[in-house]
From TrEMBL:
This is ABC transporter, transmembrane domain, type 1. The keyword Transmembrane helix applies. The keyword Membrane applies. It comes from Akanthomyces lecanii RCEF 1005. One of its GO terms (molecular function) is ATP binding. Belongs to the ABC transporter superfamily. ABCC family. Conjugate transporter (TC 3.A.1.208) subfamily. The chain crosses the membrane at residues 236-260, 280-303, 464-482, 488-509. InterPro entries: ABC1_TM_dom, ABC1_TM_sf, ABC_transporter_C-like. It is found in: Membrane. Gene3D superfamilies: ABC transporter type 1, transmembrane domain.
C-alpha cells in the first residue's frame, strides 16, 4: 500500500471507527500486511512464512504497545502514523537485506517526514511543562531517527555497464537524490578536467539512445494517425506529470514567505498575542519558506533537462539520421541527392526543435495558473472578493498597454538594425568611391546621406529611451499605485486596515500582476509547438 493511501486512511478511519480496539486491530493488520507482503512475493516455504509472520506480528504489536504506553493518553488517531511508519521501515529493512531495490524507501521517507511534523506539532505544546520536556524530546527523536533511516537507505544496488559505473540517480539514497550528491561516486573531478570520456559513467539501460528510439517507435506505431506532439506527450507523460506536480508545489510554496510575513507582522504590531519564542520561530520559518521554492525550482529544471529535453532531443536526432540514411537510391547526380538529404535533415531538425522547445516549459503554464488561483484565493481571504475583483480588473487594464509597448519596442529595435545596415552599406560605397577618386565631386551628397541615417538612428534611440521610461513607470510603479485602489475600497467598506493586511496585499498583488503579464508570453511558444502537423511517419 502506497504512502498516499496510508495517509488517506489516516484521515478517514478515526471518524468511523467505533472502538479503539477495532481501530488498533486494523492498524496492526495493515502494518503486518506491509511486512509479510515480500514473503509471499519471494515464494518462501510455508513453515518459514508462518514463523516470520508470527515474529513480524509480535514485533509490530509490541512496538504499538510501547508507543501507546510511552505517550500518555495517546489516541488511536495518533497511534496510526506510528504503525504505518514502522511497517514501512520493516519493509525497507527486509528489502535492503534481500539485496533488492528498496521500492518502499520513498514511501517510508514521506511517511516518516509527516510523522515528524505531527509529533513536533503535538509535543511543541508540552515543551513548556517541566515534567514533559524530556518525554517530548524523546518522542520527537524517535520519529527523527526513523526519517534518517529511510533517507540513508539506498534505493537499489549500484549498476555497471561494460566496467563503467552507471548513473546513480535511480539507485542512490533519498538524501543523495534530494541534495544532488549522487554524482560524487560516478563523476570524478580529475576525469572531467582531463576530458577523459572513457572514465565517465555510463547511462542506465533505459536512458540510452537505442532504448529511447525503440520505445518511441513502438509507441508511435500504435498512434500512426496522431501528430508528433501527441506521440511525444504520451511517451513523456510520466516526467511531464512529475514536473507539473513540482510546479504546483512550487507555486504554493511561493505563498509561504508572504503568509509567514503576515503572521510575523501580526505579532510585531500586537494584533496577535505571542511571546519571543513565537517570534523567533516565525523568523526561522520565514527563512525556511524562502528556501523551499528555490529547491523545488532546481528540481523542476533538473527534471526538464535530464528526463525530458535531453532524451527527447537525442531520440528525435537519432530518428532523423536513420531517416536520412534510409532514403532510397535515386538515379540523380550526387549534388542533387546531397541537397535533398540536407533539405530533409534541416526540415526534420526544425520539427524536432519546435517540439523539444515546448515540452520542457509546460510546467511554467501549470505553475502560473496554480499561482494565479492560489494568490487570488489568499487575496480574497484577506480583503474580500470586491476589492480583489477591482484589483484584477486594474491589472488587466494595463496588460494591453504593456503589449503595445513590447510591440513598439521590437519595431524600434528592428528599425535601428536596418538603419545600421544601411549606414554600413553607404560607408562601403563611400570607401569604394574614394578608391575610384569619385568622392570629391559628390562629397556633399554622401555626407547628407550619412547625416540623414545618423539622425534617424539618434531619433530611434531617443524613442527607445522614452519607451523604456514609460515601461519602467508602468511595470514598477503601477502595481503599487493600483494596489491602493483596492485598499481604499476595503477601508471604505468599514474594515479595519492593519499593517499586516496592507503589506501582505501589496506584495501578493505585485506577484499576481507579474503572473498575469507572463501568461500571454508563455502560451504562444507551447501553441506553436503543438501545431506540428506531420505525424510520426516522418521519423
Amino acid at each position: 500500500m502506497r504512502a498516499g493511501l496510508d495517509w488517506l486512511l489516516l484521515g478517514v478511519l478515526p471518524r468511523w471507527a467505533k472502538t479503539e480496539i477495532n481501530l488498533r486491530g486494523i492498524m496492526i493488520s495493515h502494518g503486518v500486511s506491509l511486512v509479510i507482503r515480500p514473503l509471499y512475493r519471494d515464494g518462501r516455504s510455508k513453515s518459514s512464512r508462518d514463523s516470520l509472520i508470527v515474529t513480524a506480528t509480535a514485533i509490530v504489536a509490541s512496538w504499538a504497545v510501547v508507543i501507546g504506553s510511552g505517550s500518555s493518553g495517546a489516541s488511536a488517531g495518533r497511534l496510526l502514523p506510528w504503525i504505518i511508519v514502522t511497517s514501512h521501515v520493516f519493509n525497507v529493512y527486509y528489502e535492503s537485506k534481500a539485496a533488492k531495490p528498496s521500492r518502499s524507501v520513498i514511501n517510508g521517507a514521506v511517511s516518516a517526514a509527516i510523522l515528524l511534523v505531527l509529533e513536533s506539532i503535538h509535543y511543541s505544546q508540552e515543551l513548556e511543562v517541566a515534567g514533559n520536556t524530556w518525554l517530548s524530546v524523546f518522542s520527537i527523536s524517535k520519529s527523527a531517527l526513523l526519517l534518517v533511516f529511510c533517507l540513508f537507505v539506498p534505493r537499489g544496488n549500484d549498476e555497471s555497464y561494460k566496467g563503467l559505473p552507471a548513473d546513480r540517480q535511480h539507485t542512490g539514497s533519498v538524501i543523495e537524490l534530494l541534495t544532488f550528491l549522487w554524482p560524487r561516486k560516478t563523476f570524478r573531478l580529475d576525469s572531467l578536467q582531463r576530458k577523459n570520456a572513457a572514465s565517465l559513467p555510463a547511462l542506465p539501460a533505459g536512458l540510452r539512445t537505442a532504448a529511447l528510439t525503440e520505445r518511441h517507435q513502438r509507441l508511435a506505431s500504435q498512434r500512426a494517425a496522431h501528430k508528433l506532439s501527441s506521440v511525444l506527450l504520451r511517451d513523456y507523460f510520466g516526467p511531464l506529470a512529475l514536473q507539473s506536480i513540482l510546479a504546483i508545489l512550487s507555486s504554493l510554496a511561493v505563498l509561504g514567505p508572504n503568509l509567514v510575513t503576515y503572521r510575523l507582522l501580526q505579532h510585531l504590531s500586537g494584533e496577535r498575542e505571542g511571546d519571543n519564542r513565537d517570534t523567533i520561530f516565525l523568523v526561522a520559518l520565514l527563512g525556511a519558506s524562502s528556501l523551499l521554492p528555490v529547491i523545488l525550482t532546481a528540481w523542476m529544471r533538473w527534471l526538464g533537462s535530464s528526463m525530458i529535453a535531453i532524451p527527447m532531443r537525442y531520440t528525435l536526432s537519432a530518428l532523423t539520421y536513420q531517416k536520412v540514411l534510409s532514403l532510397p537510391t535515386i538515379p540523380v547526380s550526387p549534388e542533387d541527392r546531397e541537397a535533398k538529404s540536407i533539405a530533409i535533415l534541416l526540415y526534420m531538425n526544425a520539427l524536432s526543435a519546435r517540439a523539444c522547445s515546448a515540452f520542457p516549459i509546460c510546467y511554467k503554464v501549470v505553475g502560473l495558473l496554480t499561482q494565479l488561483v492560489s494568490t487570488t484565493a489568499v487575496l480574497v481571504t484577506l480583503v474580500g472578493w470586491k476589492s480583489v475583483a477591482i484589483a484584477i480588473a486594474a491589472a488587466l487594464s494595463i496588460t494591453p498597454l504593456t503589449t503595445i509597448f513590447m510591440k513598439r519596442w521590437s519595431a524600434l529595435l528592428v528599425g535601428i538594425w536596418k538603419l545600421m545596415s544601411n549606414r554600413s552599406a553607404i560607408l562601403k560605397d563611400a570607401l569604394l568611391a574614394i578608391r575610384q577618386i569619385k568622392l570629391s565631386a559628390a562629397e556633399p551628397a554622401w555626407k547628407q546621406k550619412i547625416y540623414r541615417i545618423r539622425e534617424k538612428e539618434v531619433k530611434g534611440y531617443k524613442d527607445i529611451a522614452w519607451l523604456m521610461f514609460w515601461m519602467v513607470i508602468v511595470g514598477n510603479i503601477s502595481p503599487a499605485v493600483l494596489s491602493g485602489v483596492p485598499m481604499y475600497i476595503y477601508a471604505w467598506q468599514g474594515q479595519l486596515l492593519t499593517t499586516s493586511v496592507a503589506f501582505t496585499f501589496i506584495n501578493l498583488f505585485k506577484e499576481l500582476q507579474s503572473k498575469l503579464w507572463a501568461v500571454p508570453q508563455e502560451l504562444p511558444r507551447i501553441k506553436a509547438a503543438g501545431t506540428v502537423q506531420p505525424n510520426w511517419m516522418l521519423f
